[in-house]
Amino acid sequence: MSKAVVVRRRKVPGVLNGSPWIYPNALLDVPDTAGTYPVRTDGGDHLGVCDFNPAAPIPGRILTRAKSLDNEEEWLTEAIHHAINRRLRLGYQIQGGAFRMVNGEGDGLPGLVIDMFGRTMVADCYSRGMRDRMPLIEKVLSETLGDCPLLLRMGADAAKREGIDPIDPPVATISFAENAVVFDVALGSDQKSGFYLDQRDNRRLAARWASGRQVLDLFCYHGAFALGCLAGGAKSALAVDSSEKALSAAQANATRNGLALDVLPADVFDALGELHEVGPFDLIICDPPKLAPGKRDKNKGLKAYRYLIDKCLGLLPPGGILLVSSCSQAIGEDDMRKLIMQQAAKKQMYADVIAVSGHPADHPWPIGFETGRYLSTVAVMSRGPW
Ligand code: SAH
């Protein structure tokens, strides 16, 4: 049995550029069992030490480029301290608001994501290696941050991919503030870690533009965009989602903050045909779920975006703003700009780009690891017809 993961050098161009992922087609000679092993090329070059799981679609995730990883606790402590310190340097407040404390590959901890909400942490595993070291992660976090509550989680999809059992944490409801709005969120029970932290900076942008506007928040989840806009002085906000549970959380958050939110339970793709009867809306946010989960779904995803953008631009008066996001890695900023350009040209309307952005600084991704860059947002302002 091999005691190392041996890869074909020409099949790991990404790894040579800084990506931590080793795909199955690169594997030449591998251990029989999952574990932590050194990685070598067929030419004998040492590439680092990885978590290896022969059953997973991404069988290798490089943990360090160092020669060896003899003391896992030391390595983990250093990586977690580094992740926390870099956030402090970036202006985030530990145990203050909500932010992402560890962003997997982008913090040298592939397969581990930790979000912090007030004093409560939610740790999400995406690999067997990280799941196996959960007791160690728990120990390092408690030594580093004291007695902050920690919820451990491994979602059903990730667990299935890795060939292990999921972890369902007990539900904990916590409160935290974002851009002047206080949210109550049932952590651990729901989508992601309970809240879409990756859109925080875009919500701040929308709130800054919202004064006096009539807002339409499509795919609203807990209404974070709409509530931020109302707190920013919007005249009204209508939040649309197909999930009744998400809408009742949105409504409860509105009440908690003394904000008047209108909600519409509906499939956005159906509702968009009739929303001109409800409007007008001069700030439209469109933040759908992954419409192209993989590269193979790209055309299907583009078709769905084409429809959404066409309908949203159709609702927009001169001076109106449309902010569209894609959380599908396969549909990036260039695709979004092209779609908006094509649909605006078809309608013969002036549309000027006022913002292009992605995820915030607490969601870093290694420069050689495009897979880590999944959120693309484009905002345009209409100048009326040609
Ligand atoms: N903008 C939100 C996050 C959106 S997540 C935020 O800032 O927090 C995507 C949301 O789309 C989920 O709440 C999901 O319930 C909803 N959704 C998925 N498909 C939908 C559809 N066809 N119509 C309406 N809502 C949908």
What is the third-level CATH name, the topology of the largest domain?
Answer: Rossmann fold
Helix-strand string = EHEEEEEHEEEHHEHEEHEHEHEHEHEHEE
Count of helical regions = 11
Number of strands: 19
How would the global form be characterised? Answer: globular
Low-confidence region ranges: none
Which class best fits the helix and strand makeup?
A: alpha/beta
Describe the sheet with the most strands. 7 strands, mixed
Integer tally of domains: 3
Radius of gyration: 22 Å
List of distinct ligands in this structure: S-adenosyl-L-homocysteine
The top level CATH class name of the largest domain: Alpha Beta
Strand order of the largest sheet: 15-14-13-16-17-19-18
Written overview of the protein:
With 386 residues, the chain is of the alpha/beta class. The protein folds into three domains: 5-64, Archaeosine Trna-guanine Transglycosylase, Chain: A, domain 4 (Roll); 72-170, RNA methyltransferase domain (HRMD) like (Transcription Regulator spoIIAA, 2-Layer Sandwich), CATH 3.30.750; 194-385, Rossmann fold (3-Layer(aba) Sandwich), CATH 3.40.50. The protein is 30% helix and 28% strand. It contains eleven helices and 19 strands. The strands form four sheets. A seven-stranded mixed beta sheet has the order 15-14-13-16-17-19-18, sandwiched between helices. Strands 2-6-5-4-1-3 form a six-stranded mixed beta sheet. A four-stranded mixed beta sheet has the order 7-8-9-10. A hairpin with a 7-residue loop joins strand 5 and strand 6 (60-64). Helix 2 crosses helix 4 (134-145) and helix 10 (298-315) crosses helix 11 (333-347). Residues 196, 199, 219-222, 224-225, 241-243, 246, 267-269, 287-289 line the site of S-adenosyl-L-homocysteine.
